[in-house]
Records
---
Amino acid sequence: MALNSINPTQTKAWSKLAAHFETIKESQMKTWFKENPNRAEEFTIKWEDFYVDFSKNRITSETLELFKELAQELNLQDAISKYFGGDVINQTEGRSVLHTALRSPADVEVILDGANVMPEIYKVKALIKTFSDAIINGTKKGYTNKPFTDVVNIGIGGSDLGPAMVVDSLSFYGNHLRPHYVSNVDGDHVNEILKFLDPETTLFVIVSKTFTTQETLSNATTIKNWFLKHGTQSDVAKHFVAVSTNTAKVEAFGIETSNIFPMWDWVGGRFSLWSAVGLSISLALGYENFDSLLKGAHKMDTHFKEEKFETNIPVVLAFLSVWYNNFFKAESEAIIPYTQYLNQFATYLQQAIMESNGKSIDRSGDKVAYQTGNLIWGEPGTNSQHAFFQLIHQGTKLIPADFIGFTKSLHGNLDHHDKLISNFLAQTEALLNGKSKAEVLSEGTKAAIVPFKVFEGNKPTNTIFIKQLTPESLGKLIAMYEHKIFVQGVVWNVFSYDQFGVELGKQLASKILNEFDSNTIVNHDASTSNLLSYYKNHRV
């Protein structure tokens, strides 16, 4: 069964929200805090090792009640059941969306087309564990009988961003294997990585569902040719493995059948790190840590599936995002993790969120007349404070932000961590309260400079405190955003799990590539034709 198609702006709850917005849109959050000493407690969700304070948002209890009404009108609970139940909610591609099954316990039944998918999932998990253990402990060696020292993941999009982000985020838990990620078809990218590799001790993981992706296959072929300058074709089998569904093409590349890890069409690329696409995670961190990541995600799955909406972390965060996007007309959201380990987290979420809900056609096939999707960007604090925070504090744009912090550091340097978290807390306080003209004057500021030092405040933030960055807590955090994406897609009445928008450019690129060595250029606009000619005349 597919998801319902309901225009959210035509619901009674949306009309109520619009009227409610008009009554509170100019209200000051700091006034609400003064009027209600319990506001912080009332707008905080405590769950496991997560402490989510959303009290610094331009909402009241009535706002949340109206969003609950909206959720009921849009049949959100039914949509959640279909999401976890294997229904074909990716209707345009005729697929279920079951990345949640990848992190479910073995004794859970997940039925798809009349069959339980869990035995197959755990069969692949066993392969990942056996292979990872053998590479890590050195029983599986390279063609000169040396143990492996480096692992290179070759993929793009979801086959790169997720695993690369996780491995970087959890580098504290890494083993002796050095991980590398090749994604961009830019030849300079792959050659820079190859400069530092020893072909005798490097394992290559090619991740491509169809084994036809241009970027991935180009990089894989370049790397294979580099490898063959040292080893033979028969040695390829010891150094190359693949995550793919296209067994024939993988074998033709020279990879043994035993070194092919399967994928499923019910797992979208940007949600695939939980599958064999995460093989590089298991290799770089060890299977136990990969498994902990999965278990953390499953805990968030259970919370999302079973918790009532008002204390459901992904649901509340999705409501807030819709509130700012559709009523305050905020176009972007900032993700600010106060840990350098999560320096790739916002980049990962850019794909997960913008590729999912960057849609302008609703589930009935009609053009939407309201905003969907939102721009995602960010950088770790405190670096970001010395970069774009000026815009958030004193710019003309409203930019809601998620602040993510950990109460305990990994290396245990309390002096550094106290300074980090003091900034973490200070920024959300400053964004809330701002700085009035009177306060600036009281500091003895010259009258001509006063306007430049006034901060409006009333800038919304969510504060997400987590006990410590572990594989399990990262799994929870990633899954939290995945489910937020789902709820937003339900509200906006779009299909979140296709990505047709990436296809047109690919098709045109193939056409243009063929014209580089042709004497004619046809069927392009004048600008593209001129640029193509310029490149052809200067490429060598």
---
Amino acid sequence: MDYRNQYRSFINSYYLSEGLRITFGLTLPTIIGTYLHQENIGITMSLGAVCVTIVDNAGPVLHRKNAMLVCNLVIFIASLLTGFVVGSAFATVILIAVFCFIFSMIGVYGARAGSIGLAGLFVMVLNFTQRTGTEAIILNALYILCGGIWYMLLSLSLYSFRPYKVTQQALGDLIETIGTYMFLRTALYEKNPDYDRIYINLLEKQAEINDKQNLVRELLYKSRDIVKESTNTGRITLLIFIEINDLFERIMSLQLHHRVFHQYFDSSDILQVFKNFLLLISEQLNETGISLKSGKSYPVNRLLENELANLRKEFEDFRGKEITAENVEGFIELRALMNACDDFVLRILTIQQYTSYDIKDIKKDSRVQNYDQFVSHQDFDAKVLLDNLNWKSNTFRHALRVAAATTTGFLISEFFPFGHGYWIMLTIIVILKPAYSITKSRNRDRLLGTLAGAAIGVLILMIVKDKHLMIGFMIALMVLAYSFMRTRYLLFVTLMTPYILILLYILNPLNFKNLILDRVIDTAIGSAIALLANLLFSPEWTYRQFAEYLQQMLEANKNYFIDVTSFFTGSPVSVNQYKLSRKNDYVALANISDALNRMMSEPKSKQKHVAEYQELVVLNYMMATHIATLAAIFLGKTKPKTDPEYLPVVQAVVANLDQAMKGLKTAGDQFPLSLPSTSPANASVDSKKSDLEGRLADQGLGKLNQRMTDMVEIRKKELADGITEGHLRNSLTGVKLINDQFNFIWKISEDLLKKLNA
């Protein structure tokens, strides 16, 4: 692990910038209030600011501004209403239940709306300490509103100074993650690779890449000042995103016959040579991402070109010495890998050149048209909310769960001689999420982080006695905590706990020991309530939804396959349509990978058919990578000729995928055991399917495979006769690569059906 690069990546990241911004936004009101001897006003304004930070996620500036405006209105109203009901236990219980339900339900409108709801719950809980008269309640709400407005103005003003910075940081983060994906792929070139584990790791990383692609896509395509303006920076930023997406597909397309590699070349060092070069590609992607995040151009050097030349020489020397009629198929695959390395270098050098932003006269790229299709749009119609007010809606059940759990936490604090209601409820609200697996993970992280953070806080207070130095530690912890707030929850809690303890010690040093114990007890109570609520209150177990995720995955793979193979059959779709189906396929892959990970975090009794699901997910991933390989072949420098003989294979694969989707719709959440292949109805369906697909496969694959066999035999004969540079040398690699992909995809579609009917 390269800790130096991790450090460089972190200090140039959006998350550190956010940590600094939030820390400044929260501390300044308190500092000014303390200077003016109005500490309470300053702290109250900081509470308003901290609520608005929750909704200030990375995204288009218009969305952020609107969300912060709505959030300010929500926290103002919530502060007023909470202030007026505090003092009456009955009214408070009603308020908690209603607020928790409403603010959780608005999550149906997306993550940013859910963040507004969370901010509303935060301000409700933090206002339970207010017990004074009407004037004080109104002033308290106004101070909270002022704090929220202050933070909103700070955030928007910083954006106006550097409008492209967030996009560049998010784009650099995406490039680094793709570099990690390439690093994971290099495991395929080690001896005795564990293919299943490698593919699962790649799937998990692909899901992460999809999230980062969606963020950058929103930042670019929903920001008019980037997409529609004429500045060089905006156009080049957009071009970098297009290039890196194409590069990622090219990396995914490196789905060669790895078993053939190991069969022929494990006794030599050539696979290690290629692995080392791919590791260099991974490093270059990481360096390029860091350069983009830092705002510096990538330093011009010829490292990649020199290493590529060395690789090509080693490959040609090895080929000249080792190629024979027996291993010619292995060298065909190795040639395809060499060609892919050429393509990687060309694309990376292009992206590195773009990071200088010095390229003049960049025209509107023809690859960006109808960009609106590539971003999701949230419908804020009231009908969406009304349609979810039923027991079938997971959001509805989650809203009831939050209301019940938070009310229980409040009642425990009211009627038992321990616990502080606001801290218990805060713990519940933060931990409790719609998915059981996320709640479980948050619960663990909250407890561990609180204990570890408390130990760190006590250690700092034992060593540091100077108040100014304490404040320095507190600010440093704040910056770090808020830098990890959206990415690593355990680290966030571990860093947040000591900074809160230091703050409490500064404010009330005499009662500090009791405060520490109270916080640990309150956190434990809140965690227990959240875990029990999520376990017992009708959670949405993933196995019930998995058939739906599989249907979406199969549909996405089918559309992606149809659009890509249209280039080969002579009736091509538009490049825009192909890229849209590619995007949808990657989203479906990310969704099904996330679903599998969630299921594996759930109780063992709810992990139904997890091994079978894992195999199906890997098969779908492999199909997507083989389709990506076909796309990369056609969109490469030398386009293959179209051939109508591919059409029967396309029809056979589509028929298999349609049959699989039909079976899943019938099975529902009982899949796969409700589809026994021995039943008469299924036997009849399978018979008709086999007849149709067998006929299509015979017409298509039979001809393609025979043609390929004839070409390979001719090439073997040339090599046997000592002709190393025969007329088929260049064309054979491309033809065999295409032929292999169609064979792989057909075989995978057959395997999918077998697994579904097992």
